[in-house]
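Data availability (excerpt). The following record was deposited with the supplementary files.
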Amino acid sequence: MMMGFGFVGGLFMLLFWGGLIALAVWTARELFGRRQQRMLSDPLDPREILAERYARGDISREEYELILRDLM
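Predicted structure:
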C-alpha cells in the first residue's frame, strides 16, 4: 500500500516542479521577448519618442510643446 502512495506522491511532485519550471520559462520569454521585439521593430517616430519622454516626466509640458513645434 505504501508503494502506491509513494508513486502517486512522486508523480504529483514531478508535475508540480515541471509546472513551476514551465511557468518560469514562460514568464522569462514573455518579459524578454517583448524587449527584443521592441528593439527589432521599426525605429520610433520622433514624435512618439517625444510623447514617451513627456509621459515619463522627463520633460515639462512647455518643453514638450516647444519641441513638438520644432518637429512640425
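Summary of structural features: The chain has a mean pLDDT of 83.
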